[in-house]
Amino acid sequence: xxxxxxxxxxxxxxxxxxxxxxxxxxxxxxxxxxxxxxxxxxxxxxxxxxxxxxxxxxxxxxxxxxxxxxxxxxxxxxxxxxxxxxxxxxxxxxxxxxxxxxxxxxxxxxxxxxxxxxxxxxxxxxxxxxxxxxxxxxxxxxxxxxxxxxxxxxxxxxxxxxxxxxxxxxxxxxxxxxxxxxxxxxxxxxxxxxxxxxxxxxxxxxxxxxxxxxxxxxxxxxxxx
Length: 225
Prior knowledge:
Layout: E1 2-5, H1 6-14, H2 16-25, H3 36-55, H4 60-64, E2 70-71, H5 77-80, E3 87-91, E4 96-100, E5 104-107, E6 113-121, H6 130-145, E7 153-161, E8 176-184, H7 190-202, H8 214-224
Parallel strand pairs: 1-4, 6-7
Antiparallel strand pairs: 2-5, 3-4, 5-6, 7-8
Helix pairs in contact: 1-2, 2-7
């Protein structure tokens, strides 16, 4: 059984060749810059929502957004949110152990679990990109495969830097505005993608690069120079 993370599925979607290189040769893409502010936002939001999880109450962010739900209280929440553990499911047709670590899970009055993801941004527009949508859909799929009833609608909680207020009039504080964006998931693509990933995973030869992969493009440019 081979472990496949949510990020590996996204990597395959971006470039099958990069996926093959890391899975078969241990050759990773250069690491990105550390997301220090993003990590801080994740930590602070989790702390706040955990307080309401214990009380069984709605966070003011949920109330302002008109979302009738509360943070889901379960002993598994810490495991679900831990990297390299997360929510797991053994996909028997491919023998992949698929896993992904969520930011949060809420529950509505109907008992449906709601996937929630936190995003920090400094952009003028907070957008739900295709990669964000796929991330949401994989988490929904994992919960469904673990026998949970899952809402098709998940939410992205965006913490957007309010650049207009500077550092809080000399108080050395960087303010954020909070926005909640819904996302309706459709995870019918996941099974076929896992099957395609297994074919590439087992191949002895490198597949073609993703058409717009900047990493493969750089290697080709250097090789041709």
